[in-house]
Design a protein that fits this description.
The protein is mainly alpha-helical. Helices cover 84% and strands 0% of the residues. The longest helix is centred in the middle third of the chain and has 38 residues. It is built from 20 helices and no strands.
Length: 507
């Protein structure tokens, strides 16, 4: 097994371990939260998380650009150059923290516009300030993670984060059970967050002692020029991404209700957990992709990308079917029918999840190769279309309109980004990308139709037993049909060989 694959496997293993532990704890925490505080507080929690996600536009892609610039000096073990980039990174993020603080405080007079029908939830300004504090302080330490990413050692971040997040969730749950107070719940996270950041600073300073050295060489004009060019392109990407992915809850809260944000957050918990679980695998590969781009031919890069993308189709296709079939029955069994949203909204959420998943592989190879400029304005177009379409449609057809707007912009991205970047990445026409996209989508739609028909038969009434039977069906049927449809492809044979090697190694 190559060193790139070994690092990817190690990163993925620890990330998955962390993900399963984290999800179990989050599920317990969410259950206690709902029964102790109710869906109104869930809505406030989801809304403010998205508001501060929008404020993260101030980061403007600086982290991504510097991560790309770090691949080469890390590969060459050029300590002085690493120090230079990290120094630049540190002061850029401190400036960002100040900017987010100023903008965040300026938003306080407008909170009543964003929060519609919140119910009796107390002082929302105090809650918002705690969220703002947690977000701002993160920027004082998060830049340090870029170095472990460039070294393909994401598992270090994963393990550190697991220990800290586990402790935080456990103490928050205890606090909820004892006091049933949202303010105390938030203060626990804020106080533990401060200790977390102090620990991270100490840990990474010991791991990379040269980061504390004062003799820092300045970047050359050429290096600054490359970095600034990347950042300029990523500024537009960042604004677009934030406008697309962080505004749905804000629009729902302002035009529907904050309580609805809470109901949707239960679905988003499962979608984001599954998405994160898969992205752990694909993000674990990012450092290896950077090494691949730096050392291998475009022909070999294309072969690896096709395999990478096929695995992405399989994972996101299978989980899209599972989420669409199982989420609402599970929520019904878990916390009751009153927490369920309309099927059309669930389907729109799942389609959006699948579309985002199908873009992950291309986005990661683009990021690893530093190809940000060709499609930089696509993100800006996405942002404009998303806001206009979502706000316009929510006024006409209600809640589903928000997500129809999201799908419209997502389709633009799925079409335009391959057209603009495929030739640069692989010296090939993007038509091959769309041919595979059509085949993959057709397979997912067909299998979803089969599973949906079976659900109508098996789950005429939602019970624990019928739900268990449906889980077995959803696990078996899509994977068997996918294998039957694609067993001749080289990518499938490669995936199968990886599985066989892994099983032999375990034996």
């Amino acid at each position: 097994m190559s060193s790139r694959l070994k690092m990817t496997a190690r990163n993925a293993f620890w990330s998955y371990f962390s993900m399963f532990v984290s999800f179990g704890l989050q599920f317990i925490s969410r259950t206690v939260f709902i029964y102790c505080l109710g869906e109104e507080y869930l809505g406030i929690n989801g809304l403010f998380s998205n508001v501060l996600g929008v404020l993260s536009f101030a980061e403007l892609g600086i982290g991504t650009a510097i991560n790309f610039c770090l691949y080469k000096p890390v590969a060459e073990n050029n300590i002085e150059k690493i120090k230079s980039y990290m120094w630049y990174y540190k002061w850029a993020y401190r400036t960002i923290a100040v900017i987010i603080t100023i903008i965040g405080l300026a938003l306080i007079p407008f909170l009543n516009v964003l929060v519609k029908d919140p119910g009796n939830v107390g002082n929302i300004v105090i809650y918002y300030l705690i969220y703002l504090f947690n977000t701002v302080t993160t920027y004082f330490v998060s830049y340090k993670y870029s170095l472990v990413n460039a070294e393909q050692k994401n598992y270090i971040y994963t393990n550190v984060n697991l220990i800290i997040s586990t402790s935080t969730i456990i103490i928050q749950v205890i606090a909820l059970v004892i006091w049933k107070n949202f303010l105390i719940y938030l203060l626990v996270a804020a106080i533990l967050g401060v200790f977390q950041k102090i620990f991270i600073c100490i840990y990474f300073n010991r791991l990379y002692p040269y980061l504390k050295e004062k003799n820092i060489e300045k970047l050359t004009k050429q290096e600054k020029s490359i970095l600034i060019t990347k950042i300029k392109a990523l500024v537009i990407h960042k604004i677009g991404d934030v406008s697309v992915h962080q505004t749905d809850n804000i629009i729902v809260s302002a035009f529907v209700s904050t309580k609805m944000v809470g109901l949707l957050s239960n679905y988003n918990l499962f979608i984001s957990t599954v998405s994160s679980c898969i992205n752990v695998l694909f993000n674990s590969v990012t450092g290896s992709l950077g090494n691949l781009v730096a050392t291998e031919s475009k022909e070999y890069q294309y072969i690896i990308f096709k395999r990478y993308r096929f695995i992405g189709f399989w994972f996101f296709g299978f989980t899209s079917i599972a989420l669409g079939i199982l989420m609402t029955p599970f929520i019904t069994l878990w916390i009751g029918k009153k927490m369920v949203v309309a099927p059309v909204v669930v389907n729109l959420l799942v389609v959006d999840y699948y579309m985002i998943g199908q873009r992950v592989c291309l986005n990661n190879i683009k990021s690893a190769a530093g190809v940000y400029e060709p499609d930089k304005y696509v993100a800006l177009v996405q942002a404009i279309v998303n806001l206009i379409a979502s706000i316009g449609l929510v006024k006409v057809i209600g809640l589903p309109g928000v997500y129809w707007g999201t799908l419209i912009q997502g389709t633009l991205s799925s079409v335009l980004k391959p057209i603009l970047s495929y030739k640069i990445l692989f010296n090939r026409s993007s038509k091959y990308y769309f041919i595979d996209s059509f085949k993959y989508l057709s397979a997912v739609v067909a299998v979803y139709g089969i599973c949906y028909s079976l659900q109508k038969i098996v789950m005429s009434q939602i019970t624990i037993m019928s739900f268990g039977i449906m889980i077995i069906i959803v696990v078996i049927v899509p994977n068997i049909i996918f294998a039957m449809l694609f067993f001749r492809r080289e990518e499938f044979k490669y995936l199968l060989s990886l599985i066989k090697k892994s099983l032999k190694k375990k034996k």
